[in-house]
Design brief:
With 331 residues, the chain is of the alpha+beta class. Helices cover 19% and strands 27% of the residues. It has two domains: 250 residues, Jelly Rolls, CATH 2.60.120; 65 residues, Jelly Rolls (Sandwich). It has ten helices and 19 strands. The strands form five sheets. The chain has a six-stranded antiparallel beta sheet with strand order 2-3-10-5-8-12. Strand 15 and strand 16 form a beta hairpin. The radius of gyration is 19 Å and the shape is globular. The two termini are 36 Å apart.
Length: 331
């Protein structure tokens, strides 16, 4: 098996964006409701049929190709832990407008209420940001259940945003967002998102995005849906541990991501991974074959491709599944 360049995979969304993805990947601009590019996705949109599933260049769904030969794609050790499941989803996300305040369930909530093996812890690598761009992550202090319910009932975005940590962002920033943490991504930001493979989320505002509350709550009773939101305050030390120029170590039970850059960059070790070239140009040579890379290239590297080596001035982020199926803090 050789590395597989990934075609665009942009299922329609309720919010605006997409131009920054097109510019990053060197593609023709599409519509303004294509703000996400789901890379190497075996995850379908919640309630959306097959939307979101990656179609390989040979016409097969990646999900079906892996099911037919899981050890070749994922490796025998991964299959022993997770079965024929990559346990990973990677996206490009272009916030053409501020995203709603929302939160994603952890695995315990997802299993109990949504029949999903995965919740949605995630991490963002900022690829580009307009001047003054910001994100909101976690409540600064504890919030009562009645207060949160009132904010959601009235879609009081101003109150919710004012109660959250507000963070300026710039290219190169990593921010880890554990499941349950309320958050909102501001307008003018292009991110690489690494996450658990689910499309689960509870929106705390919906009308301005032309959604119904039933959609915002994933069909759950609103009181039940709010149960997935972390209401305890996120302290400064905890928040600092989530932010930096490398991915927070606590995320390794959910996914992994590492920079491969500079003259001293390590080899690309054998294993299922999604590579995203963030700058420069170069080449990836593996035992199974080679592929040219440039800024915006997205490539799936199957386990059977073997060990690889990067050459040239390209900078790459290697995204890969968790080290084990344990879920620290996630249930």
């Amino acid at each position: 098996m050789k590395p597989i360049p990934l075609p665009p995979n942009q299922p329609p969304q309720f919010y605006r964006g997409g131009a920054r993805i097109a510019a990053f990947r060197g593609l023709a601009a599409g519509g303004d409701r294509s703000p996400e590019d789901w890379l190497a996705s075996t995850t379908a949109r919640f309630g959306g049929g097959d939307h979101g599933l990656t179609v390989l260049p040979d016409g097969r769904l990646l999900r079906d190709a892996i099911a037919a030969d899981p050890a070749e794609f994922l490796g025998p050790e991964h299959v022993a832990r997770f079965g024929a499941d990559p346990a990973l989803l990677v996206k490009l996300l272009d916030a053409g407008e501020r995203l709603p305040v929302h939160a994603h369930p952890d695995r315990t909530f997802a299993r109990e209420h949504l029949g999903s093996a995965y919740g949605k812890s995630e991490a963002w690598l900022v690829l580009a940001a307009d001047g003054g761009a910001r994100v909101h992550v976690g409540f600064r202090a504890d919030v009562g259940r009645d207060t949160l319910a009132g904010w959601a009932e009235h879609e009081d975005a101003d109150a919710m945003l004012a109660a959250m940590h507000e963070l300026p962002v710039a290219a190169g920033d990593w921010i880890y967002v554990p499941a349950g943490t309320p958050h909102a991504i501001g307008e003018g930001i292009l991110i690489l998102e690494v996450q658990e493979p689910s499309d689960l989320g509870v929106l705390l505002e919906w009308s301005r995005y032309a959604l119904a509350r039933e959609q915002a709550c994933m069909g759950l009773d609103p009181d039940v849906a709010l149960g997935c939101v972390r209401r305890s305050g996120v302290g400064e030390d905890e928040l600092a541990a989530w932010c930096g120029d490398e991915l927070a170590p606590d995320s390794r039970g959910f996914f992994r991501a590492e920079w491969l850059r500079g003259e001293e960059r390590p080899p690309v070790e054998r294993g299922y991974a999604v590579l995203v070239a963030t700058s420069g140009s170069g080449r990836l040579d593996t035992e199974g074959g080679a592929v040219d890379l440039e800024r915006g290239s997205t490539v799936l590297v199957p386990h059977a491709a073997g060990d690889g080596e990067l050459s040239g001035a390209v900078t790459v982020v290697r995204c890969s599944p968790p080290v084990d199926p344990g879920v620290p803090g996630g249930g």
